[in-house]
Amino acid sequence: MLYLVDPIDEYAIQHVTEFDGKKLQSVSKEGLSFGDADEKTDKKRLDLYKEKYQPLTDYLKKLFEGKVSKVLVSPRVETTPCILVTSQYGNSANMERIMKSQAFSDPSRSQYMASQRTLEINPRHPLLKGLLDLVEEDAESETLADTAWLLHDTAVLQSGFAQDDVEAFSLRMFRTMKGALKLDSMDLEPELEVEEDVEEEEAEEDAEAEEDHDEL
User: Fold this and answer.
1) Which region, left, alpha or beta, applies to residue 21 given φ > 0 means left and ψ of -120 to 50 means alpha?
2) How many domains are there within the chain?
3) Burial of 176 (0-12, 13-18, 19+ CB in 10 A)
């Protein structure tokens, strides 16, 4: 395992695909495989997961259209519910940040620098099992859509990408908080009425009376 932490590594490693007879693979890109895996058994298990989660992957691909190119059941995701990876020959999340931070970079071209993203889901995670149940129960539910989007937004941040629509992300978070707090509405409450102190009112009246007397 190699940890590449310097910006120059992103440029250099693109031209070093193999070292000492071993092929280098990026954990932030799709197609990652480990040599110690039991391919036959893992393939059968993966096929079963794909069949089980077909309704959810179809739903997420349609929901995230324009954000991700593919939604796949992944055997490599261990503890998190999902991750975002880029295509084999696309820019990684770190490379996207480097390109966007260039002094003379053109913001209008940022969409062309963005790579095709793949959402890899963990079929053993309880959050994904809960989403699958919701899809099969009511695929038109607003709660389902908001929860799925929050899962995507979390994967964006956790995988090192920048959040490109902060306003929409904030609104989804507020709606989720509303549901968690069981609020009926998000309308602002009326301002509190402030009662003036009687002594202050009398002092103001006396002051006004003295001003009137001085003018006479």
Assistant:
1) left
2) 1
3) middle
Distance CA 22, CA 11 (A): 19
pLDDT single digits (tens) 94-129: 676 667 666 555 555 555 555 688 899 999 999 999
Which residues neighbour 56 within 8 Å (Cβ) at sequence distance 6 or greater?
Answer: 121, 128, 131, 132, 135
The number of beta carbons lying within 10 Å of the beta carbon of residue 17 is 9
Strand 18-19 to 22-23 pairing: antiparallel
State the virtual CA torsion across 132, 136, 142, 143 in degrees, nearest 10.
-40
**Domain contains 161:** yes
CATH code for position 57: 1.20.120.790
Question: For the whole model, what pTM was predicted?
Answer: 0.71
Q: Are 87 and 118 in contact (CB under 8 A)?
A: yes
Residue that the structure tokens 């003036």 belong to: 196
Give bridge partners of residue 65 from the DSSP assignment: 68
